[in-house]
Amino acid sequence: MDALKEKFHKKSSALKTEMRALLKAKGDTVVGDVKLRQVLGGARGVKMMLYETSALDPIEGIRFRGYSIPQLRELLPKAPGCKEPLPEGLFWLMLVGEIPTEKEVRWLSKEWMKRMKVPAHTYNVINALPENTHPMVQFSVAIASMESTSVFSKNYANGMHKNDYWDATYEDAMNLIARLPKIAAYIYRRVFHDDVHVAADKSLDWAANFAHMLGINGEADFKSLMRLYLTIHADHEGGNASAHTAHLVGSTLSSAYLSYAGGMNSLAGPLHGLANQEVIKWIFEMLKELKTKNPTKAQIAKYVKKTLKAGKVIPGYGHAVLRQPDPRFTAQRVFAEEYIKDAEIVQVVWKVFDVVPDILKGLGKVKNPWPNVDAHSGAILVHYGMKQYPFYTVLFGVSRALGVLAALCWSRALGMPLERPKSVTSEWVKKTVSNGVIA
Ligand code: HAX
Question: Does domain 102-270+389-413 have CATH number 1.10.580.10?
Answer without folding.
Answer: yes
